[in-house]
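<tokenise_the_fold>
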Amino acid sequence: GARELPAAGRSGSAAAAKIPPPLSAAALQLLVRTGAAQPSLFAGQRLLDGLDEMQRLAAASIDGPLLILAGPGAGKTRTLTHRIAHMIADHGVAPEACLAITFTRRAAQEMKERLTTLLGAKAAALPIHTFHSLGLSILKTHAEFAGLPADFRLADESEQLDLLRQLLDVSAVKARSLLRAISLAKRTQRS
């Protein structure tokens, strides 16, 4: 059956939220493999109503981390945004206690827009990052541990070009070509 947990973000409050029991990895795998679901698990969960059966099963599994493996267009972002919204709206989890990470700025922006649609103003407190922006945020918060000055910043493209031109004594065209080659090498992990 369902468990009662103190509602997050309301310390000292007697308020409790009913949540479904956590699904073990084996149970989730079995449900996904067989296509079986427990309809009672989703009773009254309006945020999850628009999801298909497998998406709803994943989004309702709120206890601990969740890995979703699916092909393009399968609804991974939709499932994850609904899961986060469900945790916040239906289970009282504080938006600041969640973290959404994606690969591209475009995907992060799309997640912000979807979560704003689902949660309204609460979405503003939700940390949504790319892997790079999360790393930068951590470095800015803990610069001294990385041996960086507190006011460090990243060089923009024009500063990078100027630096390459000065250090290597090359033309602007050559510096731009080198910067593209460095970027390509980083993306493809070639050295």
User: Anything to note?
Assistant: Residues 1-23, 30-44 have pLDDT under 50 and may be disordered. The first strand starts at residue 3 and ends at 6. Residues 48 and 56 are 6 Å apart (CA to CA). The first helix runs from residue 25 to 34.
